[in-house]
C-alpha cells in the first residue's frame, strides 16, 4: 500500500495529471466548444417578428446569392487542381527526371514560392500585372487598346495561385521521384520502350499515392483561398465569411449565422476529402523493386524537337517565377517617384525603403507647398510596419513553440500508451483541427470568446483590446498541432527502445529518461518543425484578417493596407516601396529558415563530417598561400 501511495506522489504522476487536465481543457475549450457554438448558431436565428426560425438561414442560402460563393470556390478548387498539377509535375520532371540544361538554376527559380507566399506573393504579382503594374503599363504603352484591369477576378486568382501552390510539388513529389528505383526504368528502356512511354507506364504509377495527396491538398487550398481572392477581387467563401463576421444585423439579414453556415459548408468539404484520402491511404501501395536499389539517373530527350520545346517551356516558367522576385528586389531600392511611375531610375538608388526617414514637400489645392515631416520612411523606421513585424514575430514564435511543446509531450505519452485507447484518443484529438478549415476555427473563436459570459476563460472577453493577441496565439497553436504531430511523431520512431531500457536499468525515472535520452534525439526534428511553423505563421493572412483589430494588426495585414492611403494628404508617400522592401525582408527570413531546415538541418552525420573536412582543407589552403606570400 505504501509503495502505491509513494508512486502516486511522484513528480511524474503529478505532471501526467496536470498534462491530461491541461490538454482536456485545451481540447474542449479551444477546439470543441467554439465549433459547436458556431454550428448551433445557424439554427438560433430569429425572423422579423422575433420568433426563432431554425431554417431561416438555409432558406436564405437557397433563395439568395450565397450559393454563388460556394460555386466560385468549387470552380477555383477544381481548376486549380488541374493547373497546379500540370505545372507542378512538369517543373519537377524538368529538374529531377529529364536532362535539362541549367536544371539547378531552374530549380532555384521554381522554389522561390517557398520563400514568400500568401499576401506577400499576391502583392508581388500585383506589382507586375495590376492596372498600374510594371508589365501592364509597358503593354498598355505598346497596345493602347488593351484593358488595364485584365489582372483581376477569377483569371488573376487562378494564375497567381497556380504558381503559388507548386511548392508542395517541389517538396513532396521531388522526393518521390528521387526515390524511384532506376533499375525499373533501365529495364523498360532495355526492352525498347521510349522515354515518354517509360515515364507513363513505369514512373507515374509509382507517384500515384503522392499525386493523390497533393491533389487533395491543392483542392482544399483552392476551396479555402483567402489572400488572393481578397486582393484580386474574387467572390469566394473565405472573404465572404470575414466580411459577414464584421457586419451586423442592422446592415443585412443575420450575417453571423450566414458566416457560420458558410464555415460549416467548408468543414463538410474538408472532412469528406480527408476521409477519402485516409481510406485511399489505408489500401496500401506497393512497388516491386530490385534488392539493390539504384539511384535515378536523368533521362535525355532524344527527339531534338521535343528537347528544344522542353527547354523553351522550362525557361518560360522560370521567367514567370523569377520576374516578380527580381522586380521586387530591384524596385525596393528605387525612389518613390520611380516606383509610382513604374519606371526604373538606374541613376538614383536608395535604401530609404528599408531604413531612414525623409520629409516630403507637396503642392496643396491652394497652390502652396507644404512639408510633411518624415512622410517618406523605411520598413524599419516606420512605426506601423515595425509594430506589425514585432507583433507577428512574437505571436508566431510563441505559437510555434507552444505547438511543439504540446506535441512533444503528447507524442511521448502516445508511444507509451501505443496499445491503449488513451493513446489513440489523444492522437485523434490532436488531428481534430485538420478536419476543419482554418477560417471556421478562427470565426468560432471570434464569436464564442467575444463575450463576458464565457465561464471557460473566467468570463473574460478574449476579443476585447489586447486580449485578442492571446486569442490569435491559441488559433495559431491549434491550427499547427496536426502538422507538428505528423512531423514530430515520425522522429520518435528513430528512438532505439534499448536506450530507454538502459536508462531505466540505471535507475533513471521516466521524466529524466525523456529529458536526457529522448529529447536530444528528436530535438533537430522539433527545431525544424518550430522553424517551419514560424515561417508559415509570420506572414499568415487568413487568421489575421478574421481577428483584425487595432491590437491585433499583424505583419501581413500591414502589408495589405500599406498602399491603401499611399500619398493621401502627403502621408505614406513611399508605401509601395516599403511594401517591396517588406517582401524582400520576408524572403530573407524565410530563406534563412528553409536553409537551416532543408540545408544544414537535413544533412546526416556523414555529410556534416565531409563539409567540416572541406572547410578545414580550405582554411589550410588559404593559410599556405599567406605563408608563401610572407616568405
Question: What's the SSE blueprint?
Answer:
Elements: H1 2-8, H2 11-41, H3 56-63, H4 66-97, H5 103-110, H6 118-129, H7 134-142, H8 153-164, H9 167-178, H10 182-190, H11 195-223, H12 227-232, H13 237-245, H14 255-283, H15 304-331, H16 336-341, E1 357-363, E2 369-377, H17 383-416, H18 421-431, H19 438-448, H20 467-492, H21 497-505, H22 510-538, H23 542-546, H24 555-561, H25 575-600, H26 605-630
Antiparallel strand pairs: 1-2
What would your notes on this structure say?
This protein has 631 residues and is mainly α. Helix content is 68%, strand content 3%. The chain contains 26 helices and 2 strands. It has a two-stranded antiparallel sheet. β1 (357-363) and β2 (369-377) form a beta hairpin. Mean pLDDT is 81; it is low at 4-8 and 285-292.
Quick summary of this structure?
The protein is an all-alpha fold.
Amino acid at each position: 500500500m505504501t509503495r502505491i501511495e509513494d508512486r502516486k506522489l511522484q513528480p511524474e504522476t503529478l505532471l501526467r495529471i496536470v498534462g491530461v487536465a491541461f490538454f482536456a481543457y485545451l481540447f474542449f475549450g479551444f477546439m470543441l466548444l467554439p465549433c459547436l457554438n458556431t454550428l448551433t448558431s445557424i439554427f438560433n436565428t430569429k425572423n422579423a417578428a422575433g420568433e426563432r426560425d431554425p431554417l431561416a438561414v438555409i432558406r436564405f442560402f437557397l433563395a439568395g446569392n450565397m450559393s454563388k460563393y460556394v460555386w466560385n470556390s468549387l470552380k477555383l478548387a477544381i481548376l486549380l487542381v488541374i493547373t497546379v498539377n500540370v505545372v507542378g509535375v512538369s517543373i519537377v520532371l524538368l529538374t529531377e527526371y529529364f536532362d535539362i540544361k541549367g536544371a539547378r538554376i531552374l530549380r532555384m527559380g521554381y522554389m522561390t514560392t517557398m520563400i514568400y507566399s500568401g499576401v506577400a506573393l499576391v502583392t508581388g504579382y500585383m506589382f507586375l500585372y495590376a492596372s498600374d503594374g510594371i508589365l501592364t503599363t509597358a503593354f498598355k504603352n505598346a497596345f493602347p487598346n488593351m484593358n488595364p484591369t485584365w489582372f483581376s477576378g477569377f483569371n488573376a486568382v487562378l494564375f497567381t495561385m497556380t504558381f503559388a501552390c507548386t511548392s508542395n510539388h517541389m517538396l513532396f513529389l521531388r522526393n518521390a521521384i528521387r526515390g524511384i528505383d532506376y533499375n525499373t526504368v533501365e529495364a523498360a528502356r532495355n526492352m525498347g520502350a521510349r522515354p515518354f512511354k517509360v515515364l507513363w507506364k513505369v514512373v507515374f504509377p509509382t507517384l500515384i499515392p503522392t499525386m493523390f495527396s497533393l491533389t487533395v491538398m491543392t483542392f482544399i487550398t483552392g476551396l479555402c483561398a483567402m489572400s488572393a481572392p481578397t486582393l484580386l477581387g474574387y467572390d469566394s467563401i473565405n472573404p465572404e465569411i470575414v466580411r459577414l463576421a464584421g457586419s451586423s444585423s442592422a446592415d443585412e439579414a443575420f450575417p453571423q449565422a450566414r458566416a457560420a453556415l458558410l464555415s460549416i459548408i467548408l468543414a463538410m468539404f474538408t472532412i469528406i476529402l480527408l476521409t477519402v484520402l485516409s481510406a485511399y491511404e489505408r489500401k496500401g501501395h506497393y512497388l516491386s523493386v530490385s534488392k539493390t536499389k539504384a539511384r535515378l539517373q536523368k533521362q535525355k530527350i532524344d527527339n531534338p524537337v521535343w528537347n528544344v520545346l522542353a527547354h523553351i517551356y522550362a525557361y518560360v516558367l522560370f521567367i514567370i517565377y523569377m520576374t516578380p522576385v527580381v522586380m521586387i528586389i530591384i524596385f525596393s531600392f528605387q525612389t518613390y517617384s520611380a516606383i509610382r511611375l513604374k519606371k526604373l531610375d538606374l541613376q538614383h538608388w536608395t535604401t530609404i525603403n528599408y531604413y531612414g526617414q525623409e520629409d516630403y514637400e507637396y503642392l496643396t489645392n491652394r497652390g502652396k507647398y507644404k512639408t510633411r515631416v518624415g512622410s517618406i520612411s523605411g520598413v524599419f523606421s516606420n512605426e506601423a510596419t515595425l509594430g506589425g513585424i514585432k507583433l507577428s514575430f512574437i505571436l508566431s514564435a510563441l505559437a510555434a513553440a507552444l505547438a511543439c511543446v504540446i506535441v512533444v509531450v503528447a507524442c511521448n505519452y502516445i508511444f507509451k500508451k501505443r496499445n491503449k485507447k488513451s493513446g489513440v484518443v489523444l492522437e485523434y484529438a490532436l488531428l481534430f483541427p485538420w478536419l476543419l478549415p482554418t477560417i471556421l476555427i478562427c470565426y468560432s473563436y471570434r464569436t464564442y470568446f467575444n463575450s463576458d459570459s464565457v465561464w471557460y476563460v473566467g468570463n473574460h472577453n478574449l476579443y476585447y483590446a489586447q486580449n485578442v493577441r492571446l486569442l490569435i496565439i491559441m488559433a495559431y497553436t491549434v491550427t499547427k498541432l496536426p502538422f507538428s504531430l505528423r512531423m514530430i511523431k515520425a522522429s520518435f520512431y528513430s528512438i532505439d527502445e534499448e536506450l530507454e531500457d538502459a536508462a531505466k536499468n540505471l535507475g533513471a525515472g521516466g521524466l529524466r529518461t525523456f529529458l536526457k535520452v529522448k529529447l536530444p534525439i528528436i530535438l533537430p526534428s522539433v527545431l525544424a518543425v518550430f522553424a517551419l511553423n514560424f515561417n508559415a505563421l509570420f506572414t499568415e493572412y487568413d487568421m489575421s484578417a478574421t481577428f483584425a483589430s487595432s491590437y491585433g494588426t499583424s505583419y501581413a495585414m500591414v502589408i495589405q493596407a500599406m498602399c491603401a492611403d499611399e500619398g493621401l494628404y502627403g502621408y505614406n508617400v513611399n508605401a509601395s516601396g516599403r511594401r517591396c522592401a517588406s517582401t524582400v525582408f520576408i524572403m530573407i527570413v524565410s530563406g534563412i529558415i528553409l536553409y537551416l531546415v532543408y540545408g544544414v538541418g537535413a544533412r546526416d552525420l556523414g555529410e556534416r563530417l565531409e563539409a567540416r573536412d572541406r572547410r578545414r582543407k580550405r582554411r589550410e589552403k588559404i593559410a599556405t598561400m599567406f605563408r608563401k606570400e610572407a616568405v
